[in-house]
Amino acid sequence: MIPLQHFLLIGAVLFSLGLFAVITRKNAIQILMGIELMINASILNMVAFGKYDKVDNTGQIFGLFIIILAAAAVAVALVIIMNLYKRAQTIDPNQTKSLRG
Amino acid sequence: MVEQIIFYILTAIAIGSAAYVALSQQLVRSVFMFFVTLFAVAGLYVFALADFVALTQIVIYVGGVLVLLLFAFLLSSKDALNVIEKIPSGLLSANRFPALIIATVFFGLLAYTFYNIDFQNLNWIISAQANGNVKTVTDDTVRNIGVNLMSRYLLPLEMISILLMMALIGAAQIARKEPKIQ
């Protein structure tokens, strides 16, 4: 059996890489990819802890819920990014400083 | 033994490709590397005895989310793709240094915590092991997930389905061509 710590450490590495990507990237789609990386790390933790919950299976079921929520978030975020591109001709979050109102 | 070898190979693939996603200068290449990361992480789910979650990850993420990401890439113009080439590649530019500090410190905090906790002696893990509540390799998790989704977690399931519907309708509404109001 693989110890729980190893799953958690892999999740921590993936989360840190996602955090790094979110801070450094200059492209909204790549920032979204960093967020997806962080979400995957959290699902990995959920699933790893879910090993000790055979009857209720809370970890795996909430892992499924997180996947669904991430899919919904990506759908909305990509539409927002496309609209941003239509309006500001760029998807660099550093250059889009003005609001409409 | 074989289990450990495959697990650590998958770990190396996942972390390596995730590092490529986070560090690479080439945009489209990093999107394709993200495929590899998602497949490797799905493999890690299998090792955590969550085969259904791994399948869902492949179907929804690789089949849906990533295709959506590529689609958005293709819809955004060449200028948007060329933005990345203007980034100077030094260590100190583009927020890299503070990002490196933040990510490293965060990882150090998490690793320190995991190192200090003795997972084998946590109360809930001990009670789970005493009650035989630990998954084994031969368990039928898919059936268990189905039964639990329709009984114990019915309310969260319905809430999440309504939320998914709201998000998709909202996305379609935002993506519509706007009437002229300017």
How would you describe this protein?
The complex is a heterodimer of chains A (101) and B (182). Chain A is mainly α. Helices cover 73% and strands 0% of the residues of chain A. Chain A has 3 helices and no strands. Chain A has helices spanning 4-24, 28-49, 58-88. Chain A is elongated. The N and C termini of chain A lie far apart (57 Å). The relative contact order of chain A is 0.13. Chain B is mainly alpha-helical and 182 residues long. Chain B has 8 helices and no strands. In chain B, helix 1 (2-23) runs antiparallel to helix 2 (27-47) and helix 2 runs antiparallel to helix 3. In chain B, 19% of the residues are buried. The model of chain B has no long low-confidence stretch (mean pLDDT 85). The chains are: A mainly alpha (101), B mainly alpha (182). The interface between A and B is large, with 70 and 87 residues.
Question: Would you summarize the structure shown here?
Answer:
With 101 residues, chain A is mostly helical. Chain A has helices at residues 4-24, 28-49, 58-88. The mean pLDDT of chain A is 88.
